[in-house]
Amino acid sequence: MEDFLTEQFEHNRAHLRAVAYRILGSTGDADDAVQEAWLRLSRSDTTEIANLAGWLTTVVARVCLDLLRSRRARREESVDDEATEELVQEEIGPEREVMLADSISSALLVVLEMLTPAERVAFVLHDMFDLSFEEIGPIVGRSAAAARQLASRGRRRVQGASLDAHRDRARQREVVEAFLAASRGGDFAQLVALLDPNVVLRADRHAVESAAARQDRGAPRLAAEIRGANDVAAALFGRASAALPAIINGAVGATWAPGGHPYAAFQFAIADGKIVEIDIVTEPARLREFEIVLLPA
């Protein structure tokens, strides 16, 4: 019997991980939720389970709901957005690539963070996995009608936030493309004009060392941290001329990717149409952690 349960659980594992990841936005937490479902299955009387796949989905969803509530409580205490950090920092290994291929975008995961735990579970289970509200109600501890309202509220908030995010991304792209054009065109004044007076440039050690090695060929000076519009513009002048606009971890940035392989990532923080922070990442290990998608011309 145990071998049969193991076989059935493994048959459903990919589906359960997809459910957990869509709800939680973290592969680590998703794996924990799936493992907890297995432990509960191994301790349960399975003779009364008519639909094992449905039972497992319900258990995983309930575990996810508890994790969301716990995460929300921790965030309220420490103002520490664990889920968003996972999106940026988690290593992209083969298993995560498989999950992400069957998943939602980083941008939507960030939007989902704004929903209450019950809204998020109801919205994900209904809109992404077609569970009925009669099935969702007991999971979130509400009636079917209340579960329908939770999903509807979540849907409206996601749609509104997605529209705002699209508009923000369009504005960010305009600034980034103007920055790249000024770098390519050698327009120092325009480069300075796009930077906030107190802009901060940070470069990783690999980028600093590579720039130092090319210094005898006239490459601009680069340091681990540079502050002020004029100094940052001088350090970047011509440096990003070959870079192309890209979406990096859900935000508009730029990448130097000859042959389609990223060798450098430029991450921007933009406020009121000005660039306030720039991070240059060239460390191969860190670049492998990023989700980088080139934007069409």
Textual characterization of the structure:
This protein has 2 domains: 2-164, Up-down Bundle (Butyryl-CoA Dehydrogenase, subunit A, domain 3); 165-294, Nuclear Transport Factor 2, Chain: A, CATH 3.10.450. The chain is built from 13 helices and 7 strands. The chain has helices at residues 2-24, 27-42, 52-78, 82-89, 94-101, 106-112, 117-128, 133-140, 144-185, 188-193, 205-213, 229-236, 284-287; strands at 195-203, 225-227, 244-248, 251-256, 264-271, 274-281, 292-294. Strands 2-1-6-5-4-3-7 form a 7-stranded mixed β-sheet. A hairpin with a 2-residue loop joins strand 5 (264-271) and strand 6 (274-281).
Summarize the structure.
60% of the residues lie in helices and 14% in strands.
Q: Write down the secondary-structure element order.
A: HHHHHHHHHHEHEHEEEEHE
CATH superfamily of the largest domain: PhyR, sigma-like (SL) domain
Mean pLDDT over all positions: 81
**CATH secondary-structure class of the largest domain:** Mainly Alpha
Q: Within the CATH hierarchy, at the fold level, what is the topology of the largest domain? A: Butyryl-CoA Dehydrogenase, subunit A, domain 3
Low-confidence stretches: 78-104
What multimeric state do the chains show?
single chain
Number of helices: 13
Whole-angstrom Rg? 23 Å
Topology of this structure?
Blueprint: H1 2-24, H2 27-42, H3 52-78, H4 82-89, H5 94-101, H6 106-112, H7 117-128, H8 133-140, H9 144-185, H10 188-193, E1 195-203, H11 205-213, E2 225-227, H12 229-236, E3 244-248, E4 251-256, E5 264-271, E6 274-281, H13 284-287, E7 292-294
Parallel strand pairs: 1-6
Antiparallel strand pairs: 1-2, 3-4, 3-7, 4-5, 5-6
Helix pairs in contact: 1-2, 1-3, 2-3, 3-7, 3-8, 6-9, 7-8, 7-9, 8-9
